[in-house]
Design goal:
The protein has eleven helices and six strands. By secondary structure, it is α+β, with helices and mostly antiparallel strands. 32% of the residues are buried.
């Protein structure tokens, strides 16, 4: 079964099951083990087991298939941990963002990514992805953050900036105590320069947060809000879990934020009062947006 970008082979449950059985038995020929086949396999496992559990099964399956093809595991050949995790994350974000399941979801994944084996180049520069460390273990992207999306029923958190309803964000922030009067063009620019987290209820934006970061050591959490109609449901806590759990924001030396009255929320996410305030300095123009 050669899976290509049309994904016609995945039109029903049975051929998809046969494909996965062949993968698990190491029975896919090297000619049939295309990039599109990799994507289809990842789509199946992410749906069935979830992102974290899928990783172990996919790792084991690829190594088994490599052995059946006579591919030796060496520092420069064979299984690649970072690329595997990269594609699991890409597939998981796509499925959650689009709310797809089953063969339809796998076909959609293959149609979008089946010819994009070089997608990782948009996220990694050359040295980090070809080094031995990347093959043996996980390396976070250095060019841009990984796509990410999470679902709870009709509710979704996504980092896709194209989904952000800028007018909704600007309307809330312009009335907030920390960004009163902020112009829409400043909001647009701030989103472009951050990792945005939009909270959506059936497509309607009902919350927002963004992280200003170097993607290596530091993250500043800003502009967090939930619209009034959706407060009291634990959505702010969930959104914070998504922020802290984003794989491109892991391992930071320091996180910071500023809040007047939401200390309890952020403490649940792991934030603490500044231990040495005498070391901190700032420049603030609190009325910069007000005429």
């Amino acid at each position: 079964m050669v899976i290509d970008s049309t994904a016609d082979e995945l039109s029903a449950d049975e051929p998809l099951k046969r494909f996965i059985d062949d993968f698990e038995q190491g029975a896919i020929s090297s000619g049939d083990w295309t990039h599109a086949s990799h994507v289809a396999m990842a789509g199946v496992y992410v749906q069935e087991f979830g992102k974290e559990a899928a990783l172990g099964k996919i790792r084991e399956g690829i190594r088994n298939l490599n052995r059946s093809h006579g591919v030796e595991e060496t520092p420069t050949r064979g299984y690649h941990e970072t690329l595997t995790r990269f594609w699991i994350q890409v597939c998981d974000a796509f499925l959650n963002e689009n709310g797809l399941r089953g063969p339809e979801a796998v076909r959609a994944l293959v149609a979008v990514y089946g010819r994009r084996s070089d997608l990782y180049r948009e996220y990694y520069s050359y040295d980090p992805i070809v080094c031995l460390r990347a093959r043996a273990g996980w390396r976070t992207p250095d060019l841009q953050p990984l796509p990410a999306a999470w679902r709870r029923g009709e509710m979704m958190v996504s980092t896709n900036p194209r989904l952000v309803h800028v007018a909704t964000v600007q309307a809330f922030l312009s009335q907030s105590y920390w960004a009163r009067g902020i112009p829409v063009e400043v909001v647009e620019r701030s989103i472009r320069g951050s990792v945005p987290f939009g909270l959506y209820d059936g497509g309607r934006q009902v919350g927002f947060a963004r992280v200003v970061t170097d993607l290596a050591t530091y993250g500043y959490l800003a502009d967090v809000f939930i619209v009034e109609s959706h407060r009291g449901r634990g959505l702010a806590r969930w959104m914070m879990e998504c922020v802290i759990g984003h794989p491109s924001l892991a391992g930071f030396r320091r996180w910071q934020l500023a809040t007047m009255d939401a200390h309890g929320l952020y403490e649940q996410a792991g934030f603490r009062r500044v231990a040495h305030p005498e070391r901190m300095m700032e420049m603030v123009d609190a009325d910069i947006y007000e005429a």
